[in-house]
Write a structure and sequence with these properties.
It is built from 1 helix and 9 strands; from the N terminus they run E-E-H-E-E-E-E-E-E-E. By secondary structure, the chain is mostly beta strands.
Length: about 160
C-alpha cells in the first residue's frame, strides 16, 4: 500500500438520461494496480483499462466517462475521455497528456457485426502535428473464446 502520493485521480461520468456530470475521486491504491512499495506516477498500471470499470453503474446507462490524472509535483496532467453509443458497444477514446511530454491519441472501437462478433479498431495520433493512423484492424471473437486480429495496412503508399 502506498498511502502518500502526488497523483490525484478524478473520474467524471454522465448517464444517458442526464447531462449532469457525476464525480468520483479515487485514491492511487484504488485506481492503480501497484506493486508493494511502488512509487505512484501517471504511467503506473491502472487496475482496469476503462473508467467505466470503476463505476457501480450498469454500462448501458453510461454515455461518457472522463478520467483526470494530475501529478501535482511534476505539473503534468492526463485526460482520458470515452464516449459510448450503440448501447455501449461502441466507443471513442481520447487521451491527452499535458506537461513536459505532451501526447494525444484517439481510439475508435466500433462493433461492425454481432454474428460473428467483430470490432473495427482505429488508433489515431499526431506526427509532426498531423493526425495520422497508428493502427487499423479488425478483432473477431471466435467460438472457442480466442480472438483473431486482421490488420489493415496504414502506410500511405
Amino acid at each position: 500500500m502506498n498511502n502518500t502520493s502526488n497523483v490525484k485521480i478524478e473520474i467524471y461520468y454522465q448517464l444517458i438520461d442526464s447531462r449532469d456530470w457525476i464525480f468520483l475521486e479515487l485514491t492511487p491504491d484504488e485506481y492503480f494496480d501497484l506493486e508493494p512499495d511502488e512509487k505512484v506516477d501517471l504511467d503506473s498500471l491502472p487496475r482496469y483499462n476503462h473508467a467505466i470499470e470503476y463505476l457501480d453503474v450498469e454500462n448501458e446507462r453510461v454515455i461518457t466517462t472522463k478520467i483526470i490524472l494530475i501529478d501535482q509535483i511534476l505539473k503534468a496532467k492526463r485526460s482520458i475521455v470515452e464516449r459510448y453509443w450503440n448501447h455501449g458497444r461502441n466507443r471513442a477514446i481520447e487521451r491527452t497528456d499535458m506537461g513536459a511530454a505532451p501526447y494525444w491519441e484517439m481510439i475508435l472501437e466500433v462493433q461492425v457485426s454481432t454474428n460473428p462478433p467483430l470490432w473495427e479498431i482505429i488508433r489515431l495520433g499526431r506526427e509532426d502535428g498531423v493526425m495520422t493512423p497508428l493502427y487499423h484492424g479488425f478483432i473477431k471473437d471466435n467460438d472457442d473464446g480466442s480472438q483473431t486480429e486482421t490488420k489493415v495496412k496504414i502506410e500511405a503508399s
